[in-house]
């Protein structure tokens, strides 16, 4: 599997990453088998967060990657604190909280460093300068190798790009969500940061789920995009998933498409597409987007 540079961090990640949120923490053996097979097939980027399953997801991931820990890029996220009763969480973004909270993640992940530590959300009203100070301190201490942001808010992304050395921004990006193409993908590339594309298959809509409205698109518009995908797939001999992932990975700002699976069958289906991913040129993209209107971020600008 192709490996790509993660911003200017020096880290290399597989073009397909495993989003571990979908793994079932109450089925640790199955989760471990999925992670092991993903690694065996060339996936080297594994993403989790302290929020997932109240930390249990980090525990499962940490136990599953021990045999090849130094051969992968392990990513986690910080910024959310579960309520005592477990019914919800509060947004926590401060230097003290980030520095203190990483210790729990390191313990659960059974590691003494996290390759990519990401702020799990964020608003323009957060103390951005001190958040950056926290990540820079953790980097200096060797507890993280690089840091990034998980956000779809243009104003927050721009603030971090202008003030910090973030390596990446994880954001939703697919044929059905091309909002990053308005300006964010170019800003990332011009500032030495990469996009970690989540939702590349649009929750299965771009594979086999029934047609329904998506973001600002009506059901009819979604159906039109799927027809375009099918037309390309017929000509190339590939499936929808391969074409959808090829579109995302043809954007030079994208380092990896982070895809979640919860079963071995889903992993096998994902791996079968990765063998045939290819770069789409401008003409390919034009045909794929024929008759499709552009979407734009309407908030947090």
From TrEMBL:
Q: Which residues form the NADP-dependent oxidoreductase domain?
A: 15-274
InterPro entries associated with the record: AKR, AKR2_Oxidoreductase, NAD(P)_OxRdtase_dom_sf, NADP_OxRdtase_dom
Q: What is this protein called?
A: Aldo/keto reductase
Question: Which organism is this entry from?
Answer: Sphingobacterium ginsenosidimutans
């Amino acid at each position: 599997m192709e490996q790509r540079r993660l911003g200017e961090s020096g880290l290399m990640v597989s073009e397909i990453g495993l989003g571990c949120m979908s793994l079932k923490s109450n089925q640790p053996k199955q989760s471990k088998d999925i992670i092991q097979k993903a690694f065996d097939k060339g996936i080297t980027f594994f993403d989790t967060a302290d929020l997932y399953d109240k930390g249990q997801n980090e525990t499962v991931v940490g136990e599953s990657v021990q045999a090849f820990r130094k051969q992968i890029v392990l990513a986690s996220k910080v910024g959310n604190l579960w309520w005592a009763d477990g019914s919800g969480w509060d947004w926590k973004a401060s230097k003290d909280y980030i520095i203190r909270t990483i210790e729990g993640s390191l313990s659960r992940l059974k590691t003494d460093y996290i390759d990519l530590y990401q702020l799990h959300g964020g608003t323009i009203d957060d103390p951005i300068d001190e958040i950056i100070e926290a990540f820079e301190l953790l980097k200096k201490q060797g507890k993280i190798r690089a840091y990034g942001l998980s956000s779809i808010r243009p104003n927050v992304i721009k603030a971090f790009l202008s003030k910090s050395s973030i390596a990446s921004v994880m954001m939703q990006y697919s044929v059905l969500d091309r909002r990053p193409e308005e300006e964010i993908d170019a800003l990332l590339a011009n500032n030495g940061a990469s996009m970690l594309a989540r939702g590349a298959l649009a929750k299965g809509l771009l594979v086999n789920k029934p047609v329904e409205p998506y973001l600002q698109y009506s059901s009819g518009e979604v159906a039109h995009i799927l027809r375009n995908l099918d037309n390309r797939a017929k000509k190339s001999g590939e499936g929808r998933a391969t074409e959808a992932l090829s579109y995302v990975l043809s954007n030079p700002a994208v380092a990896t498409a982070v895809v979640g699976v919860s079963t071995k069958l889903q992993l096998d289906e994902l791996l079968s597409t990765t063998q045939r991913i290819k770069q789409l040129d401008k003409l390919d993209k034009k045909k794929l987007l024929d008759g499709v209107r552009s979407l734009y971020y309407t908030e947090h600008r």
